[in-house]
């Protein structure tokens, strides 16, 4: 059996607060006011009504075995509207800067003011049990408030249209800077009727498919710049156009222009390339990729030697390498073909470099011994004029070193001739 809703027997007629024609205090002044307000702020404030009413109903009936939130909802709703209307008027006076320079209200934004008044009203409806117990701090209370608010929404207890009508009246009371409502006044109904179609606060619904947001015409560009349902070109410059709400997911998943690592990243190619240009990169950087693979095979060989090896592979086996795309297959193939080319010969340039370094080492040793002999001869001349010159012989230690270096150079020349 379906559980009966607590709203079944409640009157569904909301408190009507349709603004009447406002008369100017000055006789003969404009008597027709434009009622249009910023649709977005009106909707936002109207959304705060149900949670506020739910809080008041729950706290008012906590611990009461004879009443439930639903049984008092209609009465408390009426009290809430009357309270907000009265306080919105007096709140303006309380918000004025006093003579002593103290300002009572910190924020002058309409939403903050009305949200404060809603909380203030809910506080006045707490019963004794709510005030003296820990109920106000419990998670169970928050859950009950949320559940009751959703239940009122589902049952249409207080429609959004009627809440917005009330908000429009409240907004005119608290919007001190006239930022969210039209303050135009006219002498006749015809003048007002002519103004409405051009008023910057006239309401419109977003035209983007899937979006049902309502806002004032003056906010159209601002909404359009952030609307999650707006169709926009891909941020990564691919050919797709898609909703802003799915752009991030597109860019990091299926976008062909998504940047990815080169397939040969693990062997040394650190290029980041668009996903759709991988094949182009493979072709244009094929020489480099072969070089990276050979560097892994011949770790001691110089880059210059390996570049020549790459040329040898391409000259002889270009057709066998051209169609291989994945790293593993290409690595296996290069190893196989590299072995067929025979052992890698060290370039003569490298041998000359080694010989040059060795010859330099020999020159340093010989220069060192020459300096020692010169210093020793000079010392002999300074000590006494009659001293006999001593023989200028190289010390045995340095002599051995020089001979060893000469032998090393001889071996290098012999290897080079072979």
From TrEMBL:
Region Disordered, residue ranges: 1-26
Residue intervals of every TRAF-type zinc finger in the record: 223-279
Top-rank lineage group of the source organism: Eukaryota
SUPFAM superfamilies the record matches: TRAF domain-like
Chain segments annotated as transmembrane: none
Keywords: Metal-binding, Receptor, Zinc, Zinc-finger
Residues of the TRAF-type domain: 223-279
Short name of any one Pfam family annotated for the protein: zf-TRAF
UniProt keyword Zinc-finger, yes or no: yes
Molecular function GO terms recorded: zinc ion binding
Protein name: TNF receptor-associated factor family protein
Organism in which the protein naturally occurs: Gossypium arboreum
